[in-house]
UniProtKB/TrEMBL annotation:
N(2)-acetyl-L-ornithine binds at R132, S271. Its EC number is 2.6.1.11. Coiled coil: none annotated. This is Acetylornithine aminotransferase. The keyword Cytoplasm applies. Belongs to the class-III pyridoxal-phosphate-dependent aminotransferase family. ArgD subfamily. InterPro entries: AcOrn/SuccOrn_fam, Aminotrans_3, Aminotrans_3_PPA_site, Class-III_PLP-dep_AT, PyrdxlP-dep_Trfase, PyrdxlP-dep_Trfase_major, PyrdxlP-dep_Trfase_small. It is an enzyme of class 2 (transferase). One of its GO terms (cellular component) is cytoplasm. May also have succinyldiaminopimelate aminotransferase activity, thus carrying out the corresponding step in lysine biosynthesis. Homodimer. One of its GO terms (biological process) is L-arginine biosynthetic process. It catalyses: N(2)-acetyl-L-ornithine + 2-oxoglutarate = N-acetyl-L-glutamate 5-semialdehyde + L-glutamate.
């Protein structure tokens, strides 16, 4: 392994060469079952023919165009996203953190442009993860990520989840918005109750605040709904997307109602690479697949199957497994051992990939195209690995 990379990641030693569906193959020809999917990014698995075709077709035409020119595929992507949720407008970025930066800027401008510049603070929640830029790190509030980088960016206040009294107490004359992941991912697959999301919506309406949903991990079909909040039958004013949106090609999006974004005039925000022709061509191809009702129904069915099998396995290992939680194909197992121990054991002993998260939770985020047989194989591997721990 080279020492020429900034050593901020602890990397596993094997080298993957290619992949197909839910499987990755190393340069040595060893196959791994991938229940991490690049942290919910490879929503359609590896080498999906429809995505490969879209990338190749666009690759022969144009890769990059400045946003000072029209990008018809991006216009189409914005219209399609607006048609399937609450939003009227889309801004395209290259990552989740950038999508959240745009959401935070929209919220601050919303109030400033309406003559309330004093309203600029955003309320977030314990256990949140919103990215690694200076502002999104402050929004997440995780002391582990903030340490040693100087004073955290100001403008964020934090509350415990599911505590409306604390939320009410934390809102002041400077509050602009409330920002929340409908299902916390990095924090340890913590679904937020629909009641709490609805109460936040009502409070935002009452107080004139914007409600921002970070669906970067839980969006794009992951839960069996196109967007996780749709199961709660309420909508935010602003929503950030990334991860699954490009199916492996980097793209983020900040979606907004026209009213929430009323302060965003030409020059208010921008990105050199955001929404380039390659990224939007692939994202449109992802939507071709995931917006289909029967595809989403199948994700829900497979999520139920995975949940049932994993609960069965968990019941056989009560000394290690504390809890199984999540929704659709966004599942977590909380263990008594550190999650990295289970993640490494699964990788070494069973050649199965999962992702560690906070709160001693091991994340299972298979590609949405995972088969029933692969889900059964995963459950068997998990059973064997837990038995050997
Ligand atoms: C991954 C993630 C982000 C950050 O996305 P990047 O592309 O790494 O910047 C933000 N919010 C949530 C909920 C995420 O899961």
């Amino acid at each position: 392994m080279t020492d020429a990379l900034l050593p901020v990641f602890q990397r596993a030693a094997m080298v993957f060469d290619h992949g197909e569906g839910a499987w990755l193959t190393t340069t040595e020809g060893e196959r791994y079952l991938d229940f991490g999917a690049g942290i919910a990014v490879n929503a359609l698995g590896y080498s999906h023919p429809h995505l490969v075709a879209a990338l190749e077709r666009q690759g022969r035409k144009l890769w990059h165009l400045s946003n000072v020119y029209r990008i018809p595929e991006g216009e189409r992507l914005a219209e399609r996203l607006a048609a399937v949720c609450f939003a009227d407008l889309a801004f395209f970025a290259n990552s989740g953190a950038e999508a959240n930066e745009c959401a935070i800027k929209i919220a601050r401008r919303h109030h400033a442009a309406a003559g309330r510049p004093e309203r600029w603070r955003v309320l977030t929640f314990a256990g949140a993860f919103h990215g690694r830029t200076l502002a999104t790190m402050a929004a997440g509030g995780n002391p582990k990520y903030l340490a040693g980088f100087g004073p955290a960016v100001d403008g964020f206040d934090q509350c415990p989840l599911e505590d409306m009294a604390a939320v009410r107490a934390a809102i002041g004359p400077e509050t602009a918005a409330i920002m929340i992941e409908p299902i916390q991912g990095e924090g340890g697959i913590r679904p937020v109750s629909h009641g709490f999301l609805r109460d936040l919506r009502a409070l935002c309406d009452e107080q004139g605040l914007l409600l921002i949903f970070d669906e970067i991990q839980c969006g794009i079909g992951r839960t069996g709904q196109l967007f996780a909040h749709q199961a709660a039958a309420i909508a935010p004013d602003v929503m950030s997307l990334a991860k699954g949106l490009g199916g492996g090609f980097p793209i983020g999006a900040c979606l907004s109602t026209r009213d929430a974004a009323h302060g965003m005039a030409p020059g208010a925000h921008g990105s050199t690479f955001g929404g380039n022709p390659l990224a939007v061509a692939v994202a449109n191809a992802v939507l071709d697949v995931v917006c289909d009702r029967s595809f989403l129904a199948d994700v829900r069915r497979k999520g139920d199957l995975a949940r049932e099998l994993i609960e069965d396995v968990a019941a056989r290992h009560p000394h290690v497994v504390v809890q199984v939680r999540g929704c659709g194909l966004m599942l977590g197992i909380k263990t008594t051992c550190p999650s990295v121990v289970l993640v490494e054991a699964l990788r070494r002993e069973a050649k199965v990939l999962t992702i560690a998260a906070g709160d001693n939770v091991t994340r299972m985020l298979p590609p949405l195209v995972v088969s029933d047989a692969e889900i059964r194989l995963f459950a068997e591997c998990l059973d064997r690995t837990l038995a050997a721990l």
